[in-house]
Amino acid sequence: MLHLRVYGLSDSLTEIGEGLEDHGAVRNVALAQGVRAGHVLLTAEVSSEWADRILELLISRGVAEEDIALARFDEIGPIRPGHPASLIWTDVLGQARANARPVARYLIFMVAAGVIAAFGVIEANEILIVGAMAVSPDLLPITAACVGLASRRGRLVARALVTLAIGMGATCLTAVGLTLILDLFDLLPSDFVVGESALSGLTTVNDSTIGVALAAGVAGMLALETRASSAVGVAISITTIPAAAYLGVAAGVGEASNALGALAVLGVNVAMLLLAGTLTLVVQRRLAERGRRPRAAG
User: Fold this and answer.
1) With CB atoms counted within 10 Å of each terminal CB, which end of the chain scores lower, N or C?
2) CA angle 286-267-188, nearest 5°?
3) What is the distance between the alpha carbons of residues 298 and 296, in angstroms, rounded to a whole number?
4) What is the pTM of this model?
């Protein structure tokens, strides 16, 4: 359930509130007199399947976007049948626009992931690899690109992919730099050969590479609207951070063939993540639209 708050002209919001309540789109509608003459605050409870249409209606009726607030809250009580959680496209699109920007914090996390994962590759330490995956925020631009692809918003796709490329580049370059520094000061293990490590499978594209990436893409998109998104981000990073760090370490020690193999794995993984995430979002939108039609007709 969502909580709607709208501030605007009394006559307009009274008419809108009555129409929405009569149509069954909202319930518990209330109007509170504003300080300014002729203005009121409209509040109502909105089911998620109506959220996008109500926002579009308010904006088309001249209500300023900054005067509209829609918040999600959890209800305590018995589950009501027939009211499943629905995809709120406005919310998803807003998150995607924010996640497509390469902010400083994102880059810092990607660099930190590169340091931790590089040590994990060098020491063949799986715990460090998992730690790097937990730190990495690469789920954000990946899901943003999926939203852009599903909605055919080319600029959003471009921004998200550039942000993803910058982040992956930062992780790889960090791993390269760390490896070169360790090699310069003779701190690499004496018998270290990246191609002979336990992670050498990161240089070969096979059926498990594609299957894991597709499953991770579906999980990442489904978790976008939930509190599980942080945890699922680790699953997404399984397909990206180890390969990016392996690429950097291999490049740092001059093993070009292994670096190219890891680059191929990383590229295939990203492509499968985008494909699975976009298809999942398209299916979600169609199911949400289909679920609204009977109510709208009634």
Assistant:
1) C
2) 140
3) 5
4) 0.82
CA distances to 121, 234, 243 from 202, in Å: 11, 17, 6
Tens digits of residue pLDDT in 170-215: 999 999 999 999 999 999 988 888 877 777 788 999 999 999 999 9
125-152 as b/e: b if 16+ CB within 10 A: eeebbbbbbebbbbbbbbbbbbbbbbbe
- State how far Cα 292 lies from the chain centre: 25
- Contact partners, residue 264, CB within 8 Å, separation at least 6: 203, 205
For 139-156, the pLDDT digits (tens) are 999 999 999 999 999 999
Separation CA 108–CA 172 (nearest Å):
13
| Residue the block writes with tokens 């009977």 | 294
